[in-house]
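Inverse folding, one chain.
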């Protein structure tokens, strides 16, 4: 059921009919739209909320739009159809669009209740994005939207907003170099780890993760706790540089990065320990380890069908997952806990003082939310970072395998300094998670960045022959 809190007399169906033809053309062009390559067959509104008092000339619509598309090419006939994806849209409404907002244009409405108006991406309009900060600051409630904050955090008024570029699956606004508001675009019902885990880590006093200052939600119906997380406001870490940019800069200058990698290993370990204190850990017994290995094998088979270049290596890679299952059938077991879930250099920020912060706890967006919130061995995060060092080294000409090996070794050593256990002491588990990550990378690059496909394929070749030991020294 949809609900509209909009201009008098405008129903949700009429509003959607007015916007439908424009959204069909505009949505697939957005970087965060997950359904590229498939036509849009249907729209429905989950909610439509007028955030500004309606006037004749200016409006701000907050929409949660469900987008229906055909099944994925190659999906088995009779397979369960994919559910509609739900997207968060902030749409400005004006009679005329000023030149400064021309790049934000969605289109000119020709029918329905908004006929004669121009609609545009409201994030680029300082008045519109300023409203979001004020709503968070004052803990506003509009329709089904709830704006909440940590009362201990001081949120100043009138902080100048700007859009942060280069976003992939979400969008961000920076307010006066003081706060950054992350807007989730693809909305999945349930508890979003990107709010859940930083809040818990803040209570644990974990300085490596910025503490949320405010957030906003949409009531999802049912119980009072059924909500969709729409955005999180956190401190903007001015002067920091993300680990990927820093690594590439050091590579280009042919400078050693191992001390930074060691410090990052220590920071990762501190976050893992704080998460283990905040939430219960579990022991993976035989049945759980076998399920983990089976899931890895299934993902490999699916990726090999989609990317033929992976096929020659599949038999050897399967032995990696079989070795993990064999250990699980013996006496080996591992502790699983909440982790970051999508850790790589781009999810880490280093301050001018050399301190590392970890951000973006959403996990891999392509995986189901329930899976992203499951306890997992911390080595999975470690494997993701080790693969990231290899990616950075492969981006350098000529390839710098020694640089990657030094970073990998230093990162693991730094991790061990805090936890007392080196991730390399679990070689079968580490190799399995590195292999699983490399398989994921092959599929991702084949679909989205074919020019990058040789990077994970090179890792696949090494993992199918020598394993990861040669990479980590």
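Residues assigned per position:
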């Amino acid at each position: 059921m949809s609900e509209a809190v909009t201009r008098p007399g405008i129903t949700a169906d009429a509003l959607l009919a007015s916007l439908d033809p424009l959204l069909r053309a505009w949505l697939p062009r957005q970087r965060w739209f997950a359904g590229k390559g498939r036509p849009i067959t249907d729209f429905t509104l989950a909610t439509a909320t007028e955030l500004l008092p309606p006037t004749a000339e200016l409006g701000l619509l907050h929409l949660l739009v469900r987008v229906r598309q055909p099944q994925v090419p190659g999906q088995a006939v009779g397979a369960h159809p994919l559910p509609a994806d739900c997207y968060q849209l902030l749409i400005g409404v004006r009679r005329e669009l000023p030149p400064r907002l021309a790049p934000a244009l969605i289109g000119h409405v020709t029918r329905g209740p908004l006929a004669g108006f121009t609609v545009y991406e409201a994030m680029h309009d300082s008045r519109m994005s300023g409203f979001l900060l004020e709503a968070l600051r004052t803990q506003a409630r509009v329709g089904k939207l709830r704006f909440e904050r940590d009362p201990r955090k001081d949120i100043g008024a009138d902080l100048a907003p700007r859009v942060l570029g280069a976003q992939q699956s979400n969008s961000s606004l920076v307010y006066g170099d003081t706060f950054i508001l992350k807007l989730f675009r693809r909305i999945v019902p349930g508890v979003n780890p990107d709010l859940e885990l930083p809040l818990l880590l803040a209570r644990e006093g974990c300085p490596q993760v910025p503490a949320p200052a405010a957030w906003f939600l949409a009531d999802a119906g049912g119980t009072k706790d059924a909500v969709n997380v729409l955005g999180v406001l956190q401190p903007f870490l001015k002067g920091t540089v993300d680990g990927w940019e820093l690594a590439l800069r050091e590579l280009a200058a042919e400078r050693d990065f191992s001390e930074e990698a060691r410090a990052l290993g220590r920071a990762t370990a501190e976050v893992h320990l704080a998460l283990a204190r905040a939430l219960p850990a579990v022991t993976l017994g035989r049945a759980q380890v076998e399920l983990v290995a089976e899931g890895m094998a299934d993902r490999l088979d699916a990726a090999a069908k989609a990317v033929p270049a992976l096929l020659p290596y599949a038999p050897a890679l399967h032995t990696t997952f079989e070795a993990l299952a064999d250990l699980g059938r013996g006496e080996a077991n591992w502790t699983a806990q909440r982790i970051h879930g999508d850790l790589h250099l781009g999810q880490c920020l280093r301050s001018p003082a050399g301190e590392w912060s970890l951000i973006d706890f959403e996990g891999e967006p392509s995986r189901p939310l329930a899976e992203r919130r499951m306890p997992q061995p911390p080595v999975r995060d470690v494997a993701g970072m080790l693969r990231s060092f290899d990616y950075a080294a492969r981006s350098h000409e000529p390839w710098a395998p020694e640089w990657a090996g030094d970073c990998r070794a230093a990162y693991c050593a730094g991790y061990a300094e805090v936890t007392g256990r080196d991730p390399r002491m679990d070689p079968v588990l580490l190799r399995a998670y590195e292999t699983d990550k490399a398989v994921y990378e092959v599929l991702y690059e084949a679909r989205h960045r074919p020019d990058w496909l040789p990077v994970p394929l090179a890792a696949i070749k090494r993992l199918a022959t020598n394993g990861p030991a040669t990479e980590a020294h």
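Residues 1-5, 74-80, 468-473 have pLDDT under 50 and may be disordered. The CA atoms of residues 20 and 43 lie 7 Å apart.
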